[in-house]
């Protein structure tokens, strides 16, 4: 008989994971949502075979419990519900910042309960069950966080969760738990903040609206993630702020460095070299991530 | 008999403009390219009815001469060829930074020759005739630069060039010449440099490649323009460096400001408010520019 996956939180990630598991695996899927109407929508879509507005039932009926709420909320929920887990049950999560949740798990997890964290690198600036899709994970990275020192970690379960990601179309990456948040601050959380910063600098003053009328695809794409949900990204960024602050400091230093290159009276030789170096690095990205580098309009 | 438009430079912008004018207007179109093979490709596509590797012929046969080479090159060419223009002929350009070219025109333009500058806000990180498309200008902004103080400026010609942009699908914006480069530094040139800066910070060290494997659509889109042609963008950015340096300084100050907000022990209240403000500003963008704000994956 196939295992049951219980997904706590049927937003964009949790709801899409439910649809993907139904479509591409033989896992049984059940879920929790705060609002009954979301449970009803997920049931109507057959994303889940059962859904509750009560976490306890999900934990009771699942072999693998996936926490798919924002990091702080995941952490609070786990602290409250840890005692409900029984030996051999598997706990995982899909959030973008790990500090809060992992600390809560390591503090409260009962003996014999297994915890391996994952991070599917998918999402959108739009959130909620309304935008779920079974193909959200196709071709995206799916990070499995290895933490051999942790007593609740199990290598076989880590492989099982890696296979789960692969079966719904993701590219698997293995990262040491202790390194994850620093990496993610650099590739996701800081870039998200930079999009907001650029939006405020360019569009935030009295000339901002007219100025933005003169923008094109470059500004549009550079600032896209500034449309993300503030409440969710606040939890992700603030939950990882030590690393995000370091990444922002690196950006501040590099902007200053580039200002000095641009100030040189060298007919732009230093800037052209810098642009060339960045281009070389950027061109490796599609091959590293397997994503097509769409030639959107500038 | 319809007017002849001579396009100097059949790269992405010039070549696409030729195709668009052929497709959507009754202008006669001729062109210049440095290499004969590009002339042959443009002739084969019927983008132009005649093409030369010699600028003189284009100037001789055109009512409207469009400089579509990089800004510095446009400036050099105009200085060399200005004497070939005759009274009543119209000179325009389509480049992203105006200082060099406009200075050259105002210095060398013969009496009676009319100059009105335009800036179609279209392009791509890929350049060259190989990527031209007749619909490059659809739904994009087309700036007409008004400069009533200049003796070579003509309001009726400015309207004619605005109509040209509208007829190939663009949204017309009118900007005072003296304001153009400062606006463009903010909405295009600085964002382009920021994409390169973020690419170097995130992907430029020994951990860069592994780090980039963990990135998703947010980093991909934020850094897309770092794939642009260094030689071309050097001319644009260095040609506008006074304004670009000011924009970079504003970014550096704002990054520092946000670091201070994030450092507050306020459970992220200040950061959430900041993200909310940026989201509000960003959400005006698609409506302002008429561009579809694709919900690319995060």
Automatic annotation (TrEMBL), chains A, B:
<dbReference type="Pfam" id="PF02153">
    <property type="entry name" value="PDH_N"/>
</dbReference>
<dbReference type="InterPro" id="IPR050812">
    <property type="entry name" value="Preph/Arog_dehydrog"/>
</dbReference>
<protein>
    <submittedName>
        <fullName>Prephenate dehydrogenase/arogenate dehydrogenase family protein</fullName>
    </submittedName>
</protein>
<dbReference type="InterPro" id="IPR036291">
    <property type="entry name" value="NAD(P)-bd_dom_sf"/>
</dbReference>
<comment type="similarity">
    <text>Belongs to the prephenate/arogenate dehydrogenase family.</text>
</comment>
<dbReference type="Pfam" id="PF20463">
    <property type="entry name" value="PDH_C"/>
</dbReference>
<keyword id="KW-0560">Oxidoreductase</keyword>
<dbReference type="InterPro" id="IPR003099">
    <property type="entry name" value="Prephen_DH"/>
</dbReference>
<dbReference type="InterPro" id="IPR008927">
    <property type="entry name" value="6-PGluconate_DH-like_C_sf"/>
</dbReference>
<dbReference type="InterPro" id="IPR046826">
    <property type="entry name" value="PDH_N"/>
</dbReference>
<feature type="domain" description="Prephenate/arogenate dehydrogenase">
    <location>
        <begin position="3"/>
        <end position="293"/>
    </location>
</feature>
<dbReference type="InterPro" id="IPR046825">
    <property type="entry name" value="PDH_C"/>
</dbReference>
<comment type="pathway">
    <text>Amino-acid biosynthesis.</text>
</comment>
């Amino acid at each position: 008989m196939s295992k049951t996956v219980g997904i706590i939180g049927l937003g964009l990630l949790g709801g899409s994971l439910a649809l993907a598991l139904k479509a591409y695996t033989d896992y049984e899927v059940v879920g929790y949502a705060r609002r009954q109407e979301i449970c009803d929508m997920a049931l109507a879509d057959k994303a889940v075979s059962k859904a509750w507005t009560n976490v306890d039932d999900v934990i009771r009926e699942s072999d693998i419990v996936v926490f798919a709420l924002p990091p702080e909320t995941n952490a609070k929920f786990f602290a409250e519900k840890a005692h409900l887990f029984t030996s051999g049950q598997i706990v995982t999560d899909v959030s973008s910042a790990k500090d809060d949740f992992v600390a809560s798990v390591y503090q409260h997890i009962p003996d014999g309960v297994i915890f391996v964290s994952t991070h599917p690198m998918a999402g959108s600036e739009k959130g909620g069950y309304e935008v779920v899709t079974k193909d959200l994970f196709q071709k995206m990275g799916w990070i499995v966080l290895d933490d051999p020192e942790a007593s609740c970690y199990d290598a076989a379960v880590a492989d099982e969760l890696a296979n789960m990601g692969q079966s719904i179309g993701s590219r698997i990456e293995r990262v040491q738990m202790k390194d994850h948040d620093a990496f993610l601050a650099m590739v996701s959380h800081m870039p998200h903040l930079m999009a907001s910063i650029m939006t405020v600098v360019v569009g935030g003053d009295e000339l901002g609206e007219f100025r933005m009328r003169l923008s094109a695809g470059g500004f549009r794409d550079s600032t896209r993630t500034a449309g993300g949900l503030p409440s969710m990204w606040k939890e992700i960024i603030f939950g990882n702020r030590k690393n995000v602050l370091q990444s922002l400091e690196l950006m501040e230093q590099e902007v200053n460095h580039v200002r000095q290159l641009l100030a040189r009276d060298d007919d732009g030789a230093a800037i052209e070299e810098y642009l060339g170096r960045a281009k070389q690095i950027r061109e490796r990205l599609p091959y590293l991530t397997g994503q097509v580098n769409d030639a959107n309009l500038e």
